[in-house]
């Protein structure tokens, strides 16, 4: 089962199972920890060392994108920064520097619930929703002193580029991906800023208003997280981002085109989804006039198998599997004393599952997935046989990016949009584990099955990158201001050109 990364923020769903944001933690035991209370250095070092041992013992994808030498160096460099007088937040930041470097979007860390609650009640958050477009941070609301689309240049005396560089570590993505980081930093800017820069009572801004050449200044008060959330719910970009059905079909008769949108594979009723796909593709087969199919997964952050594979079976031109190989590096959960169980018996259930689905004998420390757990799929008899256009973007992750990878593997498909957050060649996903560090109560969570997806090597997609499009279409400040869907516009224009060539 693939993970669905869910970051709850202004009701926007993004891509790892129950991976709530650092400020939205699960219930924790009562503790007297605070965000600013110093913790003895020896205890912080003990938690960091436990974090490192857990990663080395249980994280199958630890060395997927980096060498052991470089990973060891990052552990050592961040451990050295733990000094007397450090706090829970200080350790949290250092853990994220390591987590981010390992390159898995299914890896995250969470503050203890008490500290989380204290931070959210503080009036210390940046009050404006923002949009990060091509490295520029734009105001994303019409409800405020700053005009919508204003470009922020500095905050509290620091250049925006320097700020964004510091905040990237909280936005974990697969491999070396940057588009996903840009998306996540823009979506969670207020939270990331508070975590990295600490308490702020005021924000001193310099900015450029739209259409102006002169730099303006403004000082705004900090707000609570709840107040900030209300502003997010009224953001300017909401018309293109609001919640819509998980999947839907639209017909564009004038272009002989159908559009299927699948916004998530994390579905409440998989039976309805199966029926939707079956009836949709039967309909398309009964309508030979529909020569083009747009499949839009730009908001798809993942979900459960086999929802991703099922959709691809209606598009495939070949037999396929979910992965070429998949493995874990343990069968008995290591460090059980620190393992977090959301339900009683979860650890035992996980161990039974690993023994059932993976071979008993390890090969060089790797327990590979049994062949029967990775069946080969055949193209569905009702598959679409016309021209396929896939729309992707930075939100696409986990099962969403696995699906996009399978389509990208088809040389006849046309892919439009931006690089996905999830990897093209593979990722670390499926099952996940969660641990609690005893001295700080910080929780760490990561996936444990490292896998290579069933795709061919493409010379224009380097290892460690996401699914790359044929036509890279980025949002611009102008399209943002007018809430224009530039990717869909390009897709329709491309179909018009293809249709004209077909008639000649």
Shape type: globular
Instruction: Give the number of DSSP strands.
Output: 17
Task: Enumerate how many helices there are, as a single number.
Answer: 15
Share of helix, binned: 25-40%
Strand content: 15-25%
Radius of gyration: 23 Å
N-end to C-end Cα span: 47 Å
| Estimated structural class | alpha+beta
Uncertain runs are 1-31
- Tell me the major beta sheet: 6 strands, antiparallel
- Mean pLDDT over the full residue set: 92
Could you outline the blueprint of secondary structure elements for this entry?
Layout (H helix, E strand, L loop, with lengths): L40 H18 L9 H12 L8 H15 L5 E3 L2 H9 L8 E4 L2 E4 L11 E5 L2 E2 H8 L11 H9 L1 H9 L4 E7 L7 E6 L3 H8 L5 H4 L5 E6 L4 E6 L7 H17 L5 E5 L10 H7 L9 E6 L17 H12 L9 E2 L18 E6 L6 H10 L5 E4 L8 E11 L6 E11 L17 E2 L4 H5 L4 H18 L1
Descriptive account of the structure:
The chain has 504 residues and is of the alpha+beta class. It is built from 15 helices and 17 strands. Strands 2, 3, 4, 5, 6 and 7 form a six-stranded antiparallel beta sheet that branches. The protein has a six-stranded mixed beta sheet with strand order 8-9-10-13-14-17, with helices on both faces. Strands 1, 11, 12, 15 and 16 form a five-stranded antiparallel beta sheet that branches.
């Amino acid at each position: 089962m693939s993970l669905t990364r869910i970051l709850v923020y202004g009701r926007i769903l993004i891509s790892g199972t129950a991976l709530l944001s650092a400020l939205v933690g699960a219930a924790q035991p009562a503790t007297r920890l605070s965000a600013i209370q110093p913790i003895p250095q020896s205890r912080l070092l003990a938690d960091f060392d436990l974090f490192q041992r857990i990663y080395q013992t249980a994280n199958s994808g630890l060395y997927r994108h980096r060498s052991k030498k470089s990973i060891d160096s990052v552990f050592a460099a961040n451990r050295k920064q733990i000094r007397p007088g450090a706090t829970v937040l200080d350790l949290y930041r250092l853990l994220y520097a390591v987590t981010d470097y390992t390159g898995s979007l299914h890896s995250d860390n969470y503050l203890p619930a008490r500290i989380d609650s204290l931070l959210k009640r503080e009036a210390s958050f940046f009050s404006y929703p923002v949009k990060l477009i091509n490295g520029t941070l734009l105001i994303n609301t019409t409800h405020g002193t700053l005009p919508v689309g204003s470009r922020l240049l500095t905050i509290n005396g620091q250049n925006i580029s320097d700020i964004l560089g510091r905040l990237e570590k909280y936005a974990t993505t697969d491999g070396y991906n940057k588009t996903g980081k840009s998306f996540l930093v823009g979506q969670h800017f207020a939270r990331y800023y508070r975590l990295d820069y600490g308490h702020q009572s005021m924000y001193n801004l310099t900015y450029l208003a739209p259409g102006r050449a002169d730099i303006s200044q403004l000082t705004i008060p900090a707000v609570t997280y709840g107040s900030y959330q209300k502003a997010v719910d009224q953001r300017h970009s909401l018309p293109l981002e609001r919640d819509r059905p998980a999947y839907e079909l639209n017909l564009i008769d004038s272009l002989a085109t159908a559009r299927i949108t699948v916004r998530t594979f994390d579905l409440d009723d998989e039976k309805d989804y199966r029926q939707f796909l079956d009836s949709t593709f039967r309909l398309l087969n009964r309508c030979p006039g529909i020569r083009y199919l747009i499949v839009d997964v730009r908001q798809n952050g993942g979900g459960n198998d086999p929802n991703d594979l099922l959709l691809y079976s209606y598009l495939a031109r070949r037999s396929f599997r979910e992965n070429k190989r998949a493995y874990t590096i343990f069968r008995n959960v290591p460090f059980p004393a620190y393992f977090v169980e959301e339900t009683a018996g979860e650890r035992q259930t996980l161990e039974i599952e690993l023994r059932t689905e993976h071979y008993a004998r390890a090969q060089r420390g790797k327990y590979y997935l049994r062949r029967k757990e990775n069946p080969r799929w055949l193209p569905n008899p009702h598959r679409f046989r016309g021209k396929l256009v896939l729309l992707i973007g930075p939100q696409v992750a986990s099962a969403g990016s696995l699906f996009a990878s399978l389509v990208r593997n088809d040389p006849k498909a046309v892919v439009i949009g931006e690089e996905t957050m999830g990897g093209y060649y593979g990722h670390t996903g499926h099952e996940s584990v969660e641990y609690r560090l005893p001295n700080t109560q910080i929780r760490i969570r990561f996936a444990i099955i490292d896998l290579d997806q069933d795709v061919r090597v493409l010379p224009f997609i380097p290892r460690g990158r996401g699914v790359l499009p044929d036509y890279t279409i980025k949002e611009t400040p102008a399209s943002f201001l007018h809430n224009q869907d530039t990717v869909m516009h390009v897709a329709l224009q491309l179909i018009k050109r293809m249709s004209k060539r077909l008639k000649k």
